[in-house]
Known about the structure:
The protein contains twelve helices and eight strands. By secondary structure, it is of the alpha/beta class. Zinc ion binds near residues 33, 36, 144 and 175.
Amino acid sequence: MNFNKTTAGTFVPDGSDLNEALERTTHLGIGAHQDDLEIFAYNGIAACYGQKDKWFSGVTVTNGAGSSRIGVYESYTDEEMIQVRADEQNKAAFVGDYSVQFQLDYNSSEVKDTQNPAATEDLTQILEKTGASIVYLHNPADKHDTHIAVLAKSIAALRKLPDDKKPQKVYGCEVWRDLDWMLDTDKSVLNCSKYENMAQSLVALYDSQISGGKRYDLATAGRRLANATYFDAHSSDDATALTWAMDLTPLVQDPTLSVKDYTLEYIDRFKADVGEKLDRLF
Ligand SMILES: [Zn+2]
C-alpha cells in the first residue's frame, strides 16, 4: 500500500500476507494516538479474539510526538518517543491478535489542517481494502482536538466509499469525555466484559503513558465497570464492563447530514430530559 508518509508502519502480528490480513478484516478501529484503540474499541478486539472468521484491524493516525515524558523516558528525544509509542502499539496488536495494525505517522497539526487531504486519502485506501462491516471511531463530543480531527478525516474517508462498500455500523466511542450523558435510548451499548485479563493488559502495556503519572489502565477498567453498574438501577449486572458509543452510521450513509447538527441533537434530547424531570418537581 502507498501511504502519503513514507514512514507509515504496517504490522501483521501473525506474519500473514498483507492482502490476506486486509481481506479477512471484519472490525476496524481508527484512533488518533497509540493506546486509543485499546481504550475505545475493545468491544471489537474482544469480538474477534480467537475467532477464525472475525478479525480486528487497527489504524493509529498520529505519531504521538508531543507526549509528556518522565522517569526512564525523561531524556528521550521526540524521535525516540515516537519509536517507543509505535512499539507499544504493535505490542498491543500482538497481544490482542489483530489482523493488521497501521501507524500513519502524522503530526497532530497535519491532521487538524482541514485543507490537508493526506490522512483522508490513506484512510480511504485502508477502508476500501478491508471492507470492514463494523468501524469504531472517536466520538464528535470528545474534548481532545486531535481526536475530533481524526474523526473528521475518518468520516470524510467513509463518505467517499461507494454505498455497497460502506460499513453496516459506525460507532463514535469514549476516550476524553465519556458518553454517559446520552439518553439510554440513544446509547449504543458496547459490551467489554470478555477476557478481562486481556482488556487490562492491552491498556497496561502502554508504560510510556502510564509512567507519566496517568493510570489509564485503572481508569479505563473503572469507567467500564461504572458504566455497567450505573446503567440500569433495576436489574443485576449481566455485563461487568460496558462502554457507550454514539451511532455514527447515519452520518456515513448520508453525506449531506451535518456532523455538528447530528451531534447537537443528542445534547438537545439530554437537555429536554433533564428539563422534563425538573419540571415535574419544581
Ligand atoms: Zn488519544
